[in-house]
Amino acid sequence: MNYPNKKKSFQKEVNKANLGMTLESDIDATNRYYLDSGIAVIHKKPTPIQVVNVSYPARNKAKITEAYYKTPSTTDYNGVFKGKYIDFDAKETNSTTSFPLKNIHPHQISHLTSVEKQNGIAFFIIHFKPYNEYYILPIHLLMPLWENQYKEKGRKSIPYAYFKDNLHQIHFSYQPRLDYLKVIQTVFNF
Amino acid sequence: MNYPNKKKSFQKEVNKANLGMTLESDIDATNRYYLDSGIAVIHKKPTPIQVVNVSYPARNKAKITEAYYKTPSTTDYNGVFKGKYIDFDAKETNSTTSFPLKNIHPHQISHLTSVEKQNGIAFFIIHFKPYNEYYILPIHLLMPLWENQYKEKGRKSIPYAYFKDNLHQIHFSYQPRLDYLKVIQTVFNF
Questions:
Q1: For chain A, how are helix, strand and coil distributed in percent, rounded to 5?
Q2: Residue B79, phi then psi, degrees to nearest 5
Q3: What does the entry list as the binding residues for Mg(2+) (chains A, B) (predicted)?
Q4: Is residue A55 within 8 Å of A73, Cβ to Cβ?
C-alpha cells in the first residue's frame, strides 16, 4: 500500500524552514541596521493568512482558532532607499552546480516585472549555500533564462557558472551582515 | 457588580470593522485598477499574525489552530508609481467637526517620518464619512499638529476646517473609485 510517510514528510518541511531562517534572519538584521542607521526603510511583509475563526477567551485579546496560509501575490521585501523603490525576494539552494528555477514562483516574476515597468529596483538575492555566496540577480537578467525553460529542451535551472561570471556578489560581514544595498547601487548605477 | 458586557463589546468591534471595510475595499479596488492598467504597483500589506500552533489534518494543507494579531510596525499600503516610493495609511471618522489624532498610531508616525527622510512619498488618506470627503494629509503637514497634542492644552484633534482650507481632496468616481495618485502628483509636485 502506498501510505504517505507522514513523519518523513514533516521532517523534510522542518528542515526546509530552518534553511530559510538563516538567510531570512540575516536579511532582517541587515534591514534593522539600515533602519536604525537612517540608510533605508525596508521591511519584510507579513505572511498572508486567511482567518476563518476568532474567539475571545479573555478581554482585549482575540485568539485566532482557525486560519490558513494564503499564497502571497508579491515578494517578501520592499521599501525605499535614497528615493528609489526597492523590491526583492531571497532564495537559497544546496546545489553546487546550478540554481533550480522551480524555487521561483510565477507570481513573483509577474510582480517584479510590474515593479520594473514602474522604474522600481527589482531583483532576487540568491544564496549558494555550499559556497556561502550571495548574488544579486536583477529581474531583467532573469527574464530570458526564465522564459527559456518553457521552450523545447529549455534549461530548468541557471548554471552556477552564470552567477560566477556575470553577477555581483554581496559579501557577508559583521554589520550589516549582508550589505546588499551597496551592491544594488553598483548594479543599478545610482 | 461590574461584569463586562461581552455581547455589546463584541458588537461594537464588528461595527468598527465594517466601517473600515468600505474605505479599505475602495482603496483595494483602486489599487487593482492601477495594477491592471499599468499605472502603479501598490498593495495592502497582510495583517501580521503570530502563529503559535499548526496542525496537519489533511495532506498539503496546514491548519493554523492558535495564532494572535500582532501590532504592525509600518503602514498598511506601499508600492511604486513612476519610480517613486509610495507609503500611506487610510483613516476615517464619523465626526463632522474634527479628526481625532488618537486614530493615528505612534508607530505609523515614526514609519512615515523615516520614509520621508528617504525621499519617499508619505501621507494619510483621511475620510470624513458625514461629508463623504477624502483628503490627502502629507506627513510633513501632520507633524506640527501631531507634536502639538503633547503640549499643555495642546489640541488632540485636527479641525475639519483645516482640511477644507488647506488640503487637496480625492474625488470619488466610478473607476478608479479613489484616484489618489492623481492628487498625489499635484500635492508632491512630480
A1: 35, 35, 30
A2: 165, -160
A3: 74, 76, 89, 108
A4: no
- Cell readout for B155 is 489640541
Is the ipTM beyond the 0.95 threshold? no
Residue B147 vs residues A188, B142, B150, B161: alpha-carbon distances, Å: 39, 9, 6, 19
Distance between CA A159 and CA A122 in Å, rounded? 21
Sort strands B98-100 and B61-69 into parallel, antiparallel or unpaired.
unpaired
- The Cα–Cα gap between A19 and A103 comes to 13
Only one residue has cell 516574476, namely A109
Q: Which residue has the cell 479628526?
A: B99
Contact A77, A91 (CB under 8 A): no
Q: Does A79 touch chain B (CB under 8 A)?
A: yes
Determine the 3-state secondary structure of A119 from DSSP: coil
Q: What share of chain B is helix, strand, coil (3-state, %, to 5)?
A: 40, 35, 30
Q: Which domains does chain B have, with CATH numbers?
A: 14-46+72-188 (3.40.1350.10)
Is the separation of the CB atoms in A48 and A21 below 8 Å? Answer: no
Under a CB-based contact definition with an 8 Å cutoff, are residues A28 and B31 in contact?
A: no
Q: For cell 518553457, what's the residue?
A: A150
Question: Does the CB of A65 have a partner CB in chain B at under 8 Å?
Answer: yes
Per-residue model confidence as pLDDT tens digits over B114-168: 999 999 999 999 999 999 999 999 999 999 999 999 999 999 999 999 999 999 9
Is the CB of residue B68 less than 8 Å away from at least one CB of chain A? yes
Is A47 assigned to a binding site? no
Binary contact (B46, A51; C-beta < 8 A): no
